[in-house]
Amino acid sequence: MTAPEGYAPGIKVRYHGSLTDQHGEYVILDVCECGACDEADDWAAFTRMPRQPRYVLATGRGERAHLAHVRHASVTP
Ligand SMILES: [Zn+2]
Q: Per residue in 3-43, pLDDT tens?
């Protein structure tokens, strides 16, 4: 897939998505490119909906993945 516009790995963001008990500050570890997110991205491209990158979030720099499949709209730098 081509890289959609999105936040770069390493930047700090605040998560305010559907998992309310996980709300807080995180660091973007990477773009989530698992099968489910790839499929969602393909579907968005097919239906010409705005494409949204999804992210893997860590609790801090150097930490391991904590949340995956996080929608672009669910985080704010
Ligand atoms: Zn995913």
A: 446 899 999 999 999 999 999 999 999 999 999 999 988 88
pLDDT tens digits along 34-60: 999 999 888 888 899 887 889 999 999
CA end-to-end distance (rounded Å), the chain: 24
Q: 18 CA to middle of ligand 1, Å?
A: 15
Distance 39 CA to ligand 1 centre (A): 9
Distance CA 55, CA 65 (A): 10
55 C-alpha to ligand 1 centroid (Å): 7
Domain range annotation of the chain: 12-76
Report the 10 Å Cβ neighbour count for 65: 13
